[in-house]
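I keep forgetting this: the sequence line spells out the residues, with the fold written below as integer tokens. I include a record here:
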Amino acid sequence: MWNGELLDLDAYLERVGHRLDPEADPATTLRELHRAHLGAIPFENADIGAGASLALDVPSLQDKMVRRRRGGYCFEQNLLFAAVLERLGHEVTGLAARVLLGREGDIPRTHALLRVDRKWLVDVGFGGGGLLTPLPLAQGAFEQQGDWTFRLDLDDDVWTLKSFQGGEWVSLYAFTEDPRTPADYAILSYYLSTNPASAFVGRLLVQRTDERARYAITDHQLTVATPHGGSEKRSLTPDELATALREDFGLELPVTATG
């Protein structure tokens, strides 16, 4: 399903700075890889902003995010991670979520995420302050990850991932366990990367989350937000933007994407 046989696993592990422990149990390996991936490969949509087409096959994803040391958005990130996990013997199911971020209403399912071994919620591609490590796919699952706190609720077969921010629970996204395939993701990705109404078209988005804060660049503005509700914003000059991308996110982006 996820073409893990096409993956250069050694190159990927070097990219994320992780060495597999043959004595570790699968759950520990999954958690360590999830955190290592997030720490090394940031969320970014620069190719969309530059008008470049996105390829979601494993060799293309590996070329971009491993060899060229770029980032990607949810479809790219989670498809690459699905190939890694499949290669390591995990059972991977693709899912799709409605991104809420506190909103309500009729919101389409445009976010890719993964169910692993039928018991873990796995997501390395959510730029809006998502999980640092996998969360048990169980009603009421609750976990502190660094300064961030997450909860998973189930209501009428709909799961909702929530994050405690600024003194209240904020719904990040909602999903069901209806499976999705790479072909489903290709259709969604094409829409999100080409439709003028998409939030990813026409602006630069770069994000990463660590144990203490979420760092986000939107065009030329840098925002640093904490789970306690505080945030700092500042505008960046073109030179400052290039420096921030390089030093804070490890990215050298095409000039057309940052201009």
User: Anything to note?
Assistant: The chain has one domain: 4-258. The mean pLDDT is 94. Residues 26-40 form the longest helix (15 residues). The domain at 4-258 is CATH 3.30.2140.20 (Arylamine N-acetyltransferase fold).
